[in-house]
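Input (structure):
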């Protein structure tokens, strides 16, 4: 796996992290959580930019948002007791299939 794909996966995994810290920031009233949100966002975007330079913006953004969406939904189920219906899990798996498919047809992997 090329280093750019590693950057992209890490960037995607950081996206749900900043979503959690954003929620904990209490609308930016808790400065430490707000700072954590900003740092995690910047690192995620920086790694995304490194990946985009080689993989391309369309594929990079699609994979980044796909990873972020899947893991944000999983964290929502685990941390916030959001529903985990079979249909919801099915659609999460469709996003995973899309991310894997993009990786397979991109020719960069």
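Output (sequence):
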């Amino acid at each position: 796996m090329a280093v750019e794909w590693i950057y992209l996966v890490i960037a995607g995994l950081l996206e749900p992290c900043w979503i959690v810290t954003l929620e904990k920031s209490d609308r930016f009233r808790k400065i430490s959580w707000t700072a954590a949100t900003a740092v995690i966002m910047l690192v995620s975007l920086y790694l995304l930019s490194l990946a985009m330079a080689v993989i391309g913006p369309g594929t990079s953004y699609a994979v980044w948002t796909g990873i972020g969406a899947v893991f944000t939904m999983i964290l929502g189920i685990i941390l916030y007791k959001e529903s985990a219906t079979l249909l919801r899990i099915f659609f999460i798996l469709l996003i995973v299939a899309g991310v894997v498919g993009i990786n397979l047809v991109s020719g960069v992997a």
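Notes: DSSP finds four helices and no strands in the chain. The mean pLDDT is 93.
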